[in-house]
């Protein structure tokens, strides 16, 4: 474990280099007519490729948290429940996942607003790094209440003080969803019936900010008269005129909330998953808009490196990537988590969008 600290420091530095320009995640939640809750989200990073992998974690798999000092190891934890996750940078850093009991968990960047506890060697055995908290929770809990109880037993720490803090969303089979933010070293839980989450500022502020857009409504604005002049919409959708279109977290939160709320409800879970991907098409971030001209740091197709959708009811996790827009899925019901081996597999072995040639006869 201690031999990996250097690589973790380098990871922390990489995740900090362009922090204010490239941290972004957008999460939405949709409900089908047959009462399936679908959690969909994007993950963005424009500073480098995230080396994203899917991991399959069997019951009984043992892990240990990293700590920033490198002198001591953190919390040891064993998976009571099997799970599948999407990891970034290293296979241990699961950013989004689903366990066999239907608990969903994901982390979202939260720069400048969160603050973890200061790491203490005396608390090392009960300390869990922020980037490993999703893994620990998915292997340990099956309900929101269990998540809350578990968080109270540990010290959540950062691996590298230069890296961005994160906040988390959790949802269980009941459809209940919460957000966890650690402020001044203390965990704060917020109910999230709306099911939308982005980044900074804090969740409560984002919800309050929605009130600034009380004028928005679906459909077309009615014609009006301005003195003797007739004013009419140029086209459909003018009820949303003024919705923010930039990629800042507050603007994405507003846009996600209104797009989600006005989406027609679908019959089935799969139809709802596909709808989630369609909505999140609107949140793909081109790399070039995040950096000054001529200063784009890496040649990748998009700052939105992958998009996922999770179906807790049917235990399926879906994803697509910046290299391959085809939707792929992993069905947890087909995995024997008692017998399967730990696996970590790159999301994309071929890093280029497949193109299908249509042969016209």
Please explain how this structure is put together:
There is one protein chain. By secondary structure, the chain is of the alpha+beta class. The chain has one domain (2-212, 264-346): Penicillin V Acylase, Chain A (4-Layer Sandwich). It has 7 helices and 19 strands. The chain has helices spanning 5-17, 19-22, 133-140, 144-151, 203-209, 249-261, 269-280, and strands at residues 27-31, 37-44, 53-57, 62-64, 76-78, 83-87, 94-99, 104-109, 127-129, 155-157, 166-171, 177-183, 186-191, 224-226, 229-231, 304-311, 316-321, 328-331, 343-346. The strands form 5 sheets. An 8-stranded antiparallel sheet has the order 13-12-11-8-7-6-3-19, with helices on one face. The protein has a 5-stranded antiparallel sheet with strand order 1-2-16-17-18. Strands 4-5 form a two-stranded antiparallel ribbon. Strand 17 (316-321) and strand 18 (328-331) form a beta hairpin. The protein is globular and about 75 Å long.
């Amino acid at each position: 474990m201690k031999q990996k600290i250097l690589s973790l420091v380098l990871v922390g530095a990489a995740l900090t280099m362009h922090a204010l320009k490239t941290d972004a995640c957008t999460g939405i939640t949709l409900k089908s007519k047959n009462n399936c809750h679908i959690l969909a989200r994007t993950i963005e990073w424009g500073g480098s490729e995230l080396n994203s992998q899917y991991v399959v974690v069997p019951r009984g798999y043992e892990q240990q948290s990293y700590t920033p000092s490198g002198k001591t190891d953190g919390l040891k934890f064993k998976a009571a429940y099997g799970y599948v996750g999407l990891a970034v940078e290293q296979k241990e850093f699961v950013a989004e996942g689903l366990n066999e009991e239907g608990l969903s968990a994901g982390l979202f960047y939260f720069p400048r607003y969160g603050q973890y506890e200061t790491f203490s060697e005396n608390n090392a055995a009960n300390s869990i790094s922020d980037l490993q908290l999703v893994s620990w929770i998915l292997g340990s809990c099956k309900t929101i209440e269990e998540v809350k109880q578990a968080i109270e037993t540990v010290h959540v720490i950062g691996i590298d003080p230069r890296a961005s803090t994160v906040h988390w969303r959790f949802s269980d089979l009941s459809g209940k969803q919460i957000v966890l933010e650690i402020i001044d070293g203390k965990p704060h839980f917020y109910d999230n019936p709306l099911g939308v989450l982005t980044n900074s500022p804090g969740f409560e502020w984002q919800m309050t900010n929605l009130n600034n857009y009380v004028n928005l409504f679906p459909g077309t604005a009615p014609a009006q008269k301005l003195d003797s002049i007739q004013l009419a919409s140029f086209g459909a959708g003018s009820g949303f005129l003024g919705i923010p279109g930039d990629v800042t977290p507050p603007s994405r939160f507003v846009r996600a909330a209104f797009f989600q709320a006005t989406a027609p409800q679908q019959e089935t879970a799969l139809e709802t998953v596909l709808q989630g991907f369609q909505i999140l098409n609107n949140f793909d971030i081109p790399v070039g808009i995040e950096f000054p001209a001529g200063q784009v740091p890496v040649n990748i197709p998009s700052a939105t490196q992958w998009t996922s959708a999770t179906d807790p009811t049917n235990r399926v996790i879906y994803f697509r990537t910046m290299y391959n827009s085809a939707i792929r899925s992993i069905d947890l019901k087909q995995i024997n988590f008692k017998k399967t081996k730990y696996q970590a597999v790159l999301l994309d072995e071929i890093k280029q969008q497949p193109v299908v040639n249509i042969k016209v006869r």
